[in-house]
Specification:
By secondary structure, this protein is mostly helical. It has one domain: MFS general substrate transporter like domains (Growth Hormone, Chain: A), CATH 1.20.1250.20. It has 17 helices and no strands.
C-alpha cells in the first residue's frame, strides 16, 4: 500500500468506530497537532510570501500600492472561491486525501513564482496558487472537529491557528529580510523551499481519519448553515476581522519606508515577527474558550485588537511596534475562538460549515484588504486606521449577538 493510500480516509474507513477521539495529553493528539501545525505553516507561508515585498514589487513593476496588493488579494480571493467546492469534495473523498493533494500541488505551483517575468504572469500564478492552497484550510477545521474530543477541540484549533500565524510570520520575515541582499526573486524562492520542507513534514505526520465516513455531497447544507444566526455572525466576524488584518500588514510597510521613518526594507520586513505573539495568543485563547465560554474570550480579543491598532496611529516607531504586537495577538486570539466555534456549533456537514467561514475570511482578505489600499492612498495611515476600527466595531456587534451553545463552557 502506498503512503498516499495509507493516509487516505478511504483506507481508514474500516477503522474501529468505537475508538476514542484524541484527547488532551494523548500521543494521537500530539501527532495531530504537529501535522496540522506544519500544514498551517506551509499554507500561510505560501499565501503571504509576497506581502512584505509589495513595496519592492511596486518599484520593480511600476505599479501603485493598491495594484501591488492584488498579489495578495488574488491569492486569498481564489481561496475564498475554492474552499466551498473543495470542502464539499472532502465530504465525498475524504479529509486527509484532499489536504494531502492540495498541499502537494500548492507547493509545486509556489516554485514557479520566482520565474515570472511580468506583473501579469505573477498575478496569474498567485491566483492558481490560491486555488491549490484552498484544500488545507477548507478541511483542517472539519478534520479536527471529527477527530478531536470536544473538550480538547479549542486547544487543538488554537495550535493549528498558531501554525498559520507562524507561517504568516516566516512568509513575511524570510523574504523581507533577504530581498535587500539577493533581490525579491531569490527571496521568494527561499520561501518556496521552506514550504516544501514543511509540506513533507505534514505528509509524514498526518494520521488517517478514524471517524470520517464518506457522504453524499449535499449542497442544501450550505443553505442550512447560512440560515443559522450564530454561524452567520461568525462568518461576518471572519470577513471583517481578516479585512482589517490584511489591510494593516499590506500597507504599514509603505508607511514605515516613507517619511518620517525611512526604515530599510530588511527592518520593515521584520514587523511580521509580531506573528509570534499571534501564535501564543491563538493557542491560549482556544484553551481559555474551552473553559470560560467563547463569547467573553472573543469580545476580549476584539477589544485587544482595537487597542493595538490605536497605538499604531501616532508617528512613533516604538508605539507602532507595540501596537502591532497587541493588534496581532488580539486578531489571532479572536480568529482562533471564532473558527473553533464553527466546528463546535455545526451539527452536520462540518467541513462545509468551516468552508463558509473560510470563504468569508479570505473574501475579507481579498476585497477588504484592497479597499484598505484606497483608504491609505487617500487618507494616509489615519484614514487606514479608522477604516480598520470600523471593521472591528462590526465584528464586536456580531460577537455580542452570539447565543446558545457558543456561550457555554465545554469543561464542567
Amino acid at each position: 500500500m502506498s503512503v498516499f493510500e495509507s493516509a487516505s480516509d478511504a483506507s481508514a474507513s474500516d477503522a474501529a468506530p468505537a475508538a476514542e477521539r484524541h484527547r488532551l495529553g494523548s500521543p494521537g493528539l500530539r501527532r495531530v497537532n504537529l501535522a496540522l501545525f506544519a500544514a498551517g505553516l506551509s499554507t500561510f507561508m505560501s499565501l503571504y510570501c509576497v506581502q512584505a515585498l509589495l513595496p519592492e514589487m511596486s518599484r520593480d513593476f511600476g505599479v501603485s500600492p493598491t495594484r501591488a496588493s492584488l498579489l495578495v488579494s488574488l491569492a486569498t480571493g481564489a481561496v475564498a472561491v475554492a474552499v466551498i467546492p473543495v470542502s464539499s469534495l472532502s465530504e465525498r473523498f475524504g479529509r486527509t486525501r484532499v489536504m494531502l493533494v492540495s498541499s502537494a500541488v500548492a507547493t509545486a505551483v509556489g516554485l514557479l513564482l520566482p520565474l515570472c517575468p511580468t506583473f501579469g504572469a505573477l498575478a496569474a500564478v498567485r491566483t492558481v496558487q490560491g486555488v491549490a492552497l484552498a484544500g488545507v484550510p477548507a478541511v483542517a477545521m472539519a478534520y479536527l472537529a471529527d477527530e478531536v474530543d470536544p473538550g480538547s477541540l479549542g486547544g487543538a484549533m488554537g495550535r493549528y491557528i498558531a501554525g498559520t500565524s507562524l507561517g504568516g510570520l516566516l512568509g513575511r520575515v524570510l523574504p523581507g529580510t533577504l530581498t535587500d541582499a539577493v533581490g525579491w526573486r531569490w527571496a521568494v524562492a527561499s520561501s518556496a523551499l521552506a514550504v516544501l520542507a514543511s509540506t513533507v513534514l505534514f505528509w509524514a505526520l498526518l494520521p488517517p481519519s478514524r471517524f470520517f465516513r464518506p457522504s453524499r455531497i449535499e449542497h442544501r447544507a450550505l443553505l442550512r448553515h447560512l440560515a443559522d444566526p450564530n454561524l452567520r455572525r461568525l462568518y461576518l466576524i471572519a470577513l471583517v476581522l481578516m479585512a482589517g488584518m490584511v489591510t494593516v500588514y499590506n500597507f504599514l510597510p509603505y508607511r514605515l519606508l516613507a517619511a518620517p521613518f525611512h526604515l530599510p526594507q530588511a527592518v520593515v520586513g521584520m514587523i511580521a515577527v509580531m506573528y509570534l505573539g499571534g501564535s501564543v495568543g491563538s493557542a491560549r485563547a482556544g484553551g481559555l474558550a474551552d473553559r470560560a465560554g467563547r463569547r467573553p474570550v472573543l469580545l476580549g480579543a476584539l477589544a485587544l485588537t482595537a487597542a493595538g491598532l490605536a497605538l499604531t496611529l501616532p508617528p512613533s516607531v516604538p508605539l507602532i511596534g507595540l501596537g502591532l504586537l497587541v493588534f496581532t495577538v488580539g486578531f489571532f486570539a479572536a480568529h482562533s475562538v471564532a473558527s473553533g466555534g464553527v466546528g463546535a456549533h455545526a451539527a452536520t456537514a462540518k467541513s462545509q460549515a468551516s468552508a463558509l467561514y473560510l470563504s468569508a475570511y479570505y473574501l475579507g482578505s481579498s476585497v477588504g484588504g484592497t479597499a484598505g489600499g484606497l483608504a491609505y492612498e487617500h487618507a494616509g495611515w489615519t484614514g487606514t486606521g479608522l477604516y480598520v476600527l470600523a471593521l472591528l466595531a462590526v465584528a464586536t456587534a456580531a460577537a455580542l449577538d452570539l447565543s446558545g451553545r457558543l456561550l457555554v463552557k465545554l469543561r464542567r
